[in-house]
Fold these 2 entries.
Entry 1:
Amino acid sequence: MCARACRVARTGAVLLLTVILLSAAGCTGSSPSHTAPRRDYNAQTTILIGSSGANPPVLVVDKGVTVTWLNTGTGYLTVASDENDPDAFMSSPLSYNEEFPWTFTIPGTYGFHCTENPAIKGTIIVNPGTE
């Protein structure tokens, strides 16, 4: 009889410990997407965007180069070209550590901004490059 009672008590203790551990894991306050390491980036073709703005605010590339915006902030950000740019673009909402690549095929000057945060804006100058 003691064996059965001990087994029931042990099972109850294991279940209680499991519930406590699962509850604690859900209360850490951090999201898995915010704990991911920041991606490597190429300073010549990547623009870091976050709550304080865009870095660099001006980027010069040749035609055919893909520029990548990388969200380093905690909120969702959306990158869009300014009105009357030679080739319009707009990202979907980017969460932390997500990126938006755009290949520039038309030379010109492109302004960009975040539709969520007006402090995030900048310019990309696309040179004709060598053909």
Note: Residues 5 and 11 are 10 Å apart (CA to CA).
Entry 2:
Amino acid sequence: MQVSEQGVQSKGRQRHQVIPRSLILLTSTNPATDEEEVLLIKGAPTKRLWANKYNGLGGHIEADEDVQRAALRELHEETGLTPASLILRGIVHINMGHNAQGDPNPGVMMFIFCGHADSRRVQPSAEGTPEWIPAARLADFPLVDDLYELIPLALANGPMLFGHYSPQPDGSMHYRFSA
């Protein structure tokens, strides 16, 4: 297959494009409480986005990486952990609307991976501090707002999760999930 055969150029209009990202949700049982916990990262106070909020681990996928290799790299960079395996549990398309000329802004395609951590020893990074959060108490923490709905769906034993986020007139995002 040739590069020219990929259909990314279109005469007369700009095609929608996406930036690929990974989101990783690791679980572990707390040995002291026997509760299932999820590893999230509390954003550094100096971060431009989501400072002091809890988010999943992960980030951008580089041009020379496949999505799973990128997720493993991001996980190691942000926590020091290297899990035995990650399972792709979902894909979310994030639509970022249109620019002033009516062309679509680049969106985000988020690949959601889940896994179980054999080790609970984590290290902070420039992105923030990884923390084990009780899965039953996620609502008590200041999460990035889509995670209140996304985490339980991603961690459930069920079919692959698919989602679409779309911008609203007030600047917020509407979240829609299906399996």
Note: The domain at 23-91+111-160 is CATH 3.90.79.10 (Nucleoside Triphosphate Pyrophosphohydrolase).
